[in-house]
């Protein structure tokens, strides 16, 4: 892993609700602990091994000692202005068809595909989910008016996670 890949991984982990992330690739090991980590309640999960890469990291990454604490992470900002979601109403969901990173537009300088209040119909592109360096355009499978964006830009998403609420 190179330094930029490590920085991107740290950014993604810090934006998630993970308490701890560990990775081992040959002799290279990476351990990231977030503000959600509690040593007394830590659970050991099976390790995930990445395929071996022939290039060593560009610069060594110091691991925090037990005396060091990770830097605090800024709270995420709300996705949009106050949503117009009314309790008791039935809304349709546009869900993520894959695991990856959610993006509302094709690039940072481009406008979002859809915003709250926009009309959307089945087949319209609503966002991009990046997985394994592939940017996948996600199409709506429902028609209606977008009432809420449920995910912040550049946030990790899970398979079948609701991304948007749509009023039919």
How would you describe what is shown here?
This protein is mostly beta strands and 168 residues long. The chain has two domains: 1-74, no CATH class; 92-167, OB fold (Dihydrolipoamide Acetyltransferase, E2P) (Beta Barrel), CATH 2.40.50.100. The chain is 8% helix and 30% strand. It contains one helix and ten strands; from the N terminus they run H-E-E-E-E-E-E-E-E-E-E. The chain has one helix spanning 3-15; strands at 20-25, 28-33, 92-95, 100-103, 119-120, 125-131, 134-139, 144-149, 155-157, 162-167. The chain has a four-stranded antiparallel sheet with strand order 3-10-8-5, with no helix packed on it. Strand 6 (125-131) and strand 7 (134-139) form a beta hairpin. The radius of gyration is 19 Å and the shape is elongated.
SS strand fraction = 25-35%
Low-pLDDT segments, ≥5 res: none
Write down the overall geometry. Answer: elongated
Radius of gyration: 19 Å
Strand order of the largest sheet: 3-10-8-5
Tell me about the largest β-sheet.
4 strands, antiparallel
Q: For this structure, what is the CATH homologous superfamily of the largest domain?
A: RNA polymerase II/Efflux pump adaptor protein, barrel-sandwich hybrid domain
What is the residue-averaged pLDDT?
Answer: 78
> Which structural class fits the helix and strand makeup?
mainly beta
CATH class category name of the largest domain: Mainly Beta
Query: Topology as H/E string?
Result: HEEEEEEEEEE
Number of helices: 1
User: Helicity range of the residues?
Assistant: under 10%
């Amino acid at each position: 892993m190179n330094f930029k890949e490590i920085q991107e991984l740290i950014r993604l982990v810090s934006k998630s609700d993970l308490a701890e992330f560990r990775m081992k690739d040959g002799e290279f090991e990476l351990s990231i602990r977030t503000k959600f980590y509690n040593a007394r309640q830590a659970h050991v999960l099976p390790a995930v091994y990445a395929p071996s890469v022939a290039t060593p990291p560009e610069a060594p990454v110091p691991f925090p000692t037990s005396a060091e604490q990770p830097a605090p992470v800024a709270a995420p900002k709300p996705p949009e202005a106050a949503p117009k979601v009314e309790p008791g109403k039935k809304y349709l969901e546009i869900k993520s068809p894959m695991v990856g990173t959610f993006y509302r537009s094709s690039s940072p300088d481009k406008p979002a595909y859809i915003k709250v209040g926009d009309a959307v119909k089945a087949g319209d592109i609503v966002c991009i989910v990046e997985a394994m360096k592939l940017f996948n355009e996600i199409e709506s499978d429902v028609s209606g008016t977008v009432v809420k964006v449920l995910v912040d830009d550049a946030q990790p998403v899970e398979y079948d996670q609701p991304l948007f609420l749509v009023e039919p």
